[in-house]
Amino acid sequence: MASPGVLVRPGLRLLVVVYLTLLLMAPVALVFWRTFEHGLGPVIDGLTSPSTLHAIQLTAVVAFYAVIANTIFGVAAAILLVRRQFIGKRVLNALIDLPIAVSPVIVGLALVLVYGRLTGVGKALASIGINIIFSVPGMVMATIFVCIPLVVRAVAPVLEEIGDDQEQAAATLGAGPVQTFLRITLPSIRGALAYGVVLALARSLGEYGAVAVVSGRLVGRTQTVTLLVQERYLNFDPETAYACALLLVVTAVLALVISRALAPKEITR
Amino acid sequence: MTTAATTVAGAGPISGAPPASPRVRRPLHGKGGAITLGVVLTYLSVIVLIPLAAVVWRGQADGPGVFWHSITTPEAASTLKLTIVASLIVALVNMVMGTLIAWILVRDRLPGRALFDGLIDLPFALPTIVAGLALLTVYGPDSPIGLNIAYTRFAVVVALLFVTLPFVVRTVQPVLLELDREMEEAAASLGASPATIFFRIILPNIAPAMAAGTALAFARAVSEFGSTVLISGNLPFKTQVASVHIFNQLESDNVTGAAAVATVLLLVSLAMLVSLDLLQRWGARRG
Q1: pLDDT of residue B17
Q2: Which of B62, B126, B222 to mutate to test the interface with A (most CBs of A within 10 A)?
Q3: What is the pTM of this model?
Q4: How many inter-chain contacts (A to B, CB under 8 Å) are there?
Q5: In A, which residues are within 8 Å of B178 by CB distance?
Q6: Which sign does the torsion angle of CA A182, A188, A190, A192 carry?
Q7: CA triplet B256, B60, B222: central angle to 5 degrees?
């Protein structure tokens, strides 16, 4: 090997380190630096202002309902896809991945077109006192949409791997479907389910685009933390914007750490 | 499609779909199965299918002429062109850099690689608006390194590179991990150069994973919204991506225009999902 060959490995290393530093590490690190640039005072003020507290509470409420709904749906869909055979299964399988490839703005637009106040469905629901768009139900639906694949795709591989011998045995011994699910299936998918739920929760807390469309971004009413970050930044209140951004960064890092600890064995290295 | 989905989900590497099990799957008999299927389908219909169908229907409801006009107005055309071109660039950069990062993480004893490995998933977990704000902090008007690229097309590419970083890494990494090194050692003992080994042995093995990751990165880049909002400035004819255009059309009550451009993006997404499915089969056939 001539000298150029010797330089390839350090060169590639350097390229990767520089690329990751410039693209990923420096920007995230600088959010910390910018947040604490003027000390702790502005950070605490930013995080405890009434609009921030309201945004945090609203984000938690929306994420809570979305995660509950997607957990139930995710387990049911995973069981169907792994344990049952039916016509259109491949289509259902593909449909569950569809939300991944759809722009969050289109998610919002789609929900507005069906459940908006000027549509038939929207008017009918409004007449019985239910508002979807520019209100919490629409924000929950948008969040559900973007998180649909997470729980299904976390649970399905584990269901496949554990097989159904124990479930069959339980059924033979006279256990009903509910009992079998609660005593056999649920305990064995616990880890994967927790993993999927953490991913869904992180995604729900951080959703921006779809919620931006369906919420109407009404300050103090339908403003989540991500929407607050943008609004505060554009309204020349970078202190609050950065404090809330840091809160979201810490949440994301926590979710990553927890999900790594929970990840089913075949996913971890 | 399992690999694709779980990777997007930030699930980290999953080595392909589990092999088809020899177990006999019960047909959908009994009340329990039918009710579950009914609930699952209703849920998907109410949240996903009917709304997406409404977008496509609304996009062409005023006739093909209006649809065509909506997607070819100078602003819509420039926004679609920017989105497609930037996404292609981003997909190609990801194909090269993602594979290289995966290779360094698996094969190289780079100090601190556990930290790098953990950080790769961060763009999946980080809210997109925060990603945009973070990039603006480094590469915006107040850049501490004096590099201001805000409100340029380059900034759009950088934002898209940030959010798509994990795709190729996380699809290629598990394949590299499982790759049998004996083949490479045999080739080396027969006198093959590192370049020959890479192009003749490693590359053919990881090509399906690279293609799948690249397609996912492209699909994600085409539909990206949040990370570009702050750093691109959303300047029409310059840095406005398609999602922002849809958002603005909707805000100014041009619902048909928004739905028409959204239909184009949905078709691109659908094409990507179909090609991913085909790639998956290609990868499975090659073992």
Answers
A1: 43
A2: B126
A3: 0.90
A4: 294
A5: none
A6: negative
A7: 70
pLDDT at B13: 37
Residue A219 φ/ψ, nearest 5 degrees: -60, 130
Parts of chain A with a pLDDT under 50: 1-3, 266-269
Range of weakest confidence among A31-35, B47-51, B113-117, B229-233: B113-117
**HSE-up of residue B264 (Cα within 13 Å, Cβ side):** 23
More confident residue, A176 or B45: B45
Nearest to A252 among B13, B126, B269 (CB): B126
Dihedral angle of Cα A45, A47, A49, A50, to the nearest 10 degrees: -170
From residue A149, give the alpha-carbon distance in Å to each of A70, A95, A203, A232, B10.
9, 9, 11, 32, 11
Interface contact flag, B162 A24, Cβ < 8 Å = yes
CA B14 to chain CA mean position, Å: 16
pLDDT at residue B25, as a whole number: 55
The values of phi and psi at residue A85, to 5°, are -120, 125
Is residue B3's pLDDT more than 60? no
Give, as one character, the DSSP assignment of residue B27. Answer: E
B161: tokens are 């590179």
The closest CB to that of A245, out of B17, B130, B219, belongs to B130
Average pLDDT on B60-70 reads 93
* pLDDT of res. B181: 87
**Mean per-residue pLDDT, B193-215:** 91
What is the value of ipTM here, to two decimals? 0.91
Q: Which of A82, A252, A269 sits opposite B177 (nearest CB)?
A: A269
Measuring CA to CA, which residue among B203, B185, B218, B7 is closest to residue B99?
B203
Which among B97, B125, B272 has the least Cβ separation from residue A101?
B272
Residues of A in contact with B6 (CB under 8 A): 153-154, 157, 267
Check pLDDT > 80 for residue B1: no
CA distance A258 to chain B (A): 12
Alpha-helix residue ranges (DSSP H) falling in chain B = 2-8, 30-44, 50-60, 64-72, 74-107, 113-119, 122-125, 128-139, 153-178, 181-189, 194-197, 203-223, 226-232, 242-251, 255-285
